[in-house]
């Protein structure tokens, strides 16, 4: 299932003369001098890019917007009928917050503004964005942010409704981004990149949002494999027989309770000429539905466990973007897929599982299944050879408790964790490094196996850290690694905001792509 797409192009026509359904301009909040009562006078300031629109309104546009309740707050969208003042019938002013001193708005501010505006203009077929774009070294980042925000803000999951929804407005079909020179090669390259990366994020959202009965491991593996082959990636899919023959005990254990058998999908991108010689491995958790197994979850909210494959979806889609962008580094993606179900064949608390790298794991909680499938995939990635390993998973509720629903937790090699944090900051997907304390590992000692799957006393203290400590057991000493716990950021259950729509967010596709490009450029 593919959601309606939004096309993106550049334009350098005067925004006031564009034949579009709506023109989007930026609006800053500004604190002026004191008013008559001695308080701050809140004045509005149009952002650069809105000059010709303001001139068409004879300088009264900010006054009119203020009468309509505009404040310039970030993400706020105020629509105004132009009544023929400019070619577009509607002007939409999107808030950018206070005007930054001596600089353009931050890329993330622009990304969220573009997303908010395009989302608010659903029902319009053709929309132009005339937002502030600097003409200095920051120009590429600003244009990239606006383009990504527009494409992601225009996303809406196709869904399964069988009756027409008269009140439901279709997403914007075409977005034009106003730039100084539409034929500029650098600007065109940024648009092409944004389409590849945002397309991968949208595909991730589609996979995450699909009903779990329609995306079980075999079908998910087939969908990823088909898309990867079309993109020119090498594809290997291990079915349940191949997993058993290969000794993937963790993946098999989690998947044995379901009638839909598990899979391990391997995707490989090889640059022409071998690239830089560095090798990057991406591993993503693909639990297509998580009941908790024998250690069953509460019913409340369980329906959101269709999103427990968000890590695999992000890795699979990121590989498609990488194939399109062609960085000079070898990248291999590993997607272990299983459905964690309670049945007469489910794995049990007390089981001892032999993992792919030979380690014995005592199972204490079948709801800690993600680390089991990931351990096998990470061990395989190290065996195949990697300089850097980035693993992504909706692993623990502890991540949400510790860092909330916007910030991922990252654990592993300290230098690589810092690199992930910097990449997240650059693309608007924040992550925060967390420790892997010795006392947490001590609490996971097993009386009968090499390690317990969770704390041996079922103590949930440091729950997020327990996941990272466990996964460290499956990374060889010569591989720099980072584990991203995206339990909160990968799925948005609240109302749409910025370029986030309800449901799957696509986090951290953009971080992964940025990291791969960084390794290609800097090693």
TrEMBL record:
Binding sites annotated in the UniProt record for Mn(2+) 1: 290, 367, 369
Domain of life: Bacteria
Family matches, as InterPro entries: Leucine_aapep/pepB (IPR011356), Macro_dom-like (IPR043472), Peptidase_M17_C (IPR000819), Peptidase_M17_leu_NH2_pept (IPR023042), Peptidase_M17_N (IPR008283)
Record-linked PROSITE patterns: CYTOSOL_AP
UniProt remark on cofactor binding: Binds 2 manganese ions per subunit.
Residue ranges annotated for the Cytosol aminopeptidase domain, each copy included: 365-372
Swiss-Prot/TrEMBL keywords: Aminopeptidase, Cytoplasm, Hydrolase, Manganese, Metal-binding, Protease
Positions with a binding annotation for Mn(2+) 2: 285, 290, 308, 369
Main location: cytoplasm
Active site residues per record: 297, 371
Recorded coiled-coil stretches: none
Any one GO cellular component localisation term in the record: cytoplasm
Entry EC number(s): 3.4.11.1, 3.4.11.10
Names of the cofactor(s): Mn(2+)
Catalytic activity line of the entry: Release of an N-terminal amino acid, preferentially leucine, but not glutamic or aspartic acids; Release of an N-terminal amino acid, Xaa-|-Yaa-, in which Xaa is preferably Leu, but may be other amino acids including Pro although not Arg or Lys, and Yaa may be Pro. Amino acid amides and methyl esters are also readily hydrolyzed, but rates on arylamides are exceedingly low
Subcellular compartments: Cytoplasm
PANTHER family registered for this protein in UniProt: CYTOSOL AMINOPEPTIDASE, LEUCINE AMINOPEPTIDASE-RELATED
Family: Belongs to the peptidase M17 family.
Protein name: Probable cytosol aminopeptidase
Organism of provenance: Micromonospora carbonacea
